[in-house]
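Intended use. Records such as the non-specific serine/threonine protein kinase entry shown here are meant for training and evaluating sequence-to-structure methods. They are not intended to support clinical decisions.
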Amino acid sequence: MGSFACEIVEEKDDEVRLPKHSGRYGKSVMGSSSKDLERKQREYHGSLEYDIDKLFQSISVKPSTRLMSSSFHNHETSASAGPSRTTSPSKRIASIKKPGTPQSPRFVGLSDSVSLKQALRDRCISKASEMAAQKRLSKSAAASPRVSEADRIKSLYNQVSNESTSGRSGLVPVDKGKGSLVEIPLLPVNNKPSSSKSVSQRFEEHSNPISEPSQAGTSLGSQGVGNQTREIKLLHKSNKSGSCLSSGSGDYEIELDENVALPSTDAFVEDDVMEIDKHVTSLPSHSSKKVNGTELDKNILSSALDAEQKGKLDDAPSSGTEKSKTVRKVTRMIPRPKQPKKKILLKKKLKIGVVSATYPTKDDEEHVPSLDSSAHQLLCQRCHCSLKSTSIDNHPPSYTTSHNPEICTDSLSSASNNVGKEARQLSDENSSGSCNVSQSSEAEIVIMKQDVSSSNNSGISAMVEKETGNPTSSEKFEFSLSSKDSLGDYSRSTSMSEESNLSRFSCGNKPHMSMDVRWEAIKHVKVQYGSLGLRHFNLLKKLGCGDIGTVYLAELIGTNCLFAIKVMDNEFLARRKKSPRAQAEREILKMLDHPFLPTLYAQFTSDNLSCLVMEYCPGGDLHVLRQKQLGRCFPEPAARFYVAEILLALEYLHMLGIIYRDLKPENILVREDGHIMLTDFDLSLRCAVNPTLLRSNSPPGKDPARISGPYNTSNCIQPFCIIEPSCQVSCFSPRLSSNQQQGRKPKRGDHLSKTQQHLNRSLPQLVAEPTEARSNSFVGTHEYLAPEIIKGEGHGAAVDWWTFGVLLYELLYGKTPFKGYNNDETLANVVLQNLKFPDSPLVSFQAKDLIRGLLVKEPENRLGSEKGSVEIKRHPFFEGLNWALIRCAIPPELPDFYEYGGGPEGAADLPGGSNNRYLECKAIGDHLEFELF
Ligand SMILES: Nc1ncnc2c1ncn2[C@@H]1O[C@H](COP(=O)(O)OP(=O)(O)OP(=O)(O)O)[C@@H](O)[C@H]1O
């Protein structure tokens, strides 16, 4: 820009200004055609150069006493003196009146006789004033160092508007009707003030945010040379592509929106600016609604988080890569450096984003790598819980500071499931008698306790502690007609928040079933349809009816995956006051992760029907299987196999603080692989459990001293520490004194051989038996009810060991031990009758001895009442059994297979025969019509 700008503006586009000769004081113009030449000559005659030439020629220099006034009028008057002077000057005057262009303080009237010196001086003054005006203009753009980016943009816009109005800037309206497209010439960068970037540069940067900032500058420079023009549409549609673009331009545009005072004199430019403004404000939220900086920042953050989550969803293992990709996007979103306003915006981000502590505040371009790492840190911080849960070796899990409930829920549930997994491992591995296993098991149990209790959510521990705090609940006494029907008339003393457990124990992360394709199938449907409902299943057959619901075999539509869906009518449950039972079952199922316990794949409510999607067991139940046996009873090895697996399942449940209370063959299902699955938890009781480690290095001849205690008095605050022998005492304070041990009555299990006892003593013993739990509910099945339940004295975990004894008896003898002619007699027998063994079939002494130990009427003397499964597993009946590998053992028999993967009843049970593959319950949306009960 120079003092000639105004003159150039007046020229037509096709005019070419060429120096005729390089005179000292002026230039000549030369047209390209004769017409032009003529015109230019005419103009030359009225030009300063002409005057000077004339002056030189005449030499008749008259000193002018009359200085041409700056008054326009005077010029006009003087101009009228000669025709040759009337056109050109007036043209100039007209051009100088152009808005924003300063007028010369004085005009040199060429018709007057003036001295050469005066004429030149006036001319210089005129030029100088023009230059000063231009400088003022550009100063307002470059301005002070504190000027905002928006101010600079505004100034540039003013310049552009001036130039565009004059029609020479190159900012040419292309088609205003289409939305004010403008062509902006990409001028060489060095033609522009160094303090601020050109408009074209800025818009180029906005329109091409994917380029790295430095690249953008380079390309601009190269493209700009040669006055190449490039169409940049300043419309929001031009920038629609890519969230990073929208976010990237956000900061600038917010400032523009807030600060730009649009020139009111130029409607064209105003339109453009407004369009830019619209574009800007619409970008972050993808709506035309304006957003403030805070919202924008939120949007930016959420975009980043969304992207990160997506990455996480897509492929968990590659999340690191995804994160870094996202970080790069975030980097691009960050506006360019050295803009004070931007800093303010970034500060806003700091405030808004819980996780934005590492956002850069300056020099983003220069610190792209560090920004990446910062942002990576940001993301890591965002995934705090996940990371914690995966790096638990060194840090205790902390689940309280999360900004993303969804992620933290996942993490939490993952951690909780890890606990479940560890407990399961403990359950399985501890039984192997390995010292190391026991030690690590102890640690894992501690985790469970601390993990659960440390959560703000009402965890298991908190919940069960509530329950144990009030163990006696109001009860009703009600019997059902069948001796094998479960009695579940009880009311719970406490009700748990469903949400708490929902979030804690997601059914989507069961380590022992993590490779199961059914997870993927369910997940796929959820992703595809947003949610899972009954409409996504074909109900193939009714598997059975229980007290609170009906179980169907169901196929997930479009997959070959079979599930057992327990459907419960919420209204029905509420009417019968059985909702707490359904809730208890649901909550327990969510907690479970064990090979001998059901896997809950999903749960949903459809049309007032609560549905639990579980693993399908095609082998039927042990009751049915026993009926099929010769003599309707299992051979002892088979019985031993089944009860051993049941024992592990019960052990796991007790470790989780779940007293099962409804053990019977009907609730033991046979899996496809012949192993068992304990089902039906609606009568289970949740309670507190104190994990206890028994010292392994007790002196021979003495009972292992118990060194146990509440987890919260433990000195060991590191839940994932590997418990070394020296650490054992510090982690668990003594619970029972040796005097208490010595003072107790002898139990049935005490008759174990010296070798066995010595062996047992040499191993550390983990006891995770809920010995303190008490309930007065009358629950269970008549033939399986423990005496303490019938007597209403209150009961605890020992009821499970009673039912365990009854189960073993039934499997071996084909009938329960105290069965009477009716339920009342059965109950009386349970309380009063001594245990008797039939002569046939022949059963081993060890089996009978175990049964005797379990069916002790006083719960405190019952085998298992003190140390739980540990005592029972040591019984000679299980001698030689590898507890850790039982899940890999070959089961006594594999289930027969029918249609749908097998089943006890087969396809013949389907209504309408095998042609009618589906049940009568056609799903119309989520509405099902079928008999539930
Ligand atoms: N996962 C499963 N796989 C195969 N069959 C199942 C499954 N779950 C339940 N069943 C069948 O459905 C029947 C009904 O089960 P449900 O648990 O509702 O009732 P229940 O055991 O009779 O108990 P309750 O009345 O105590 O609730 C069971 O007897 C069993 O045969």
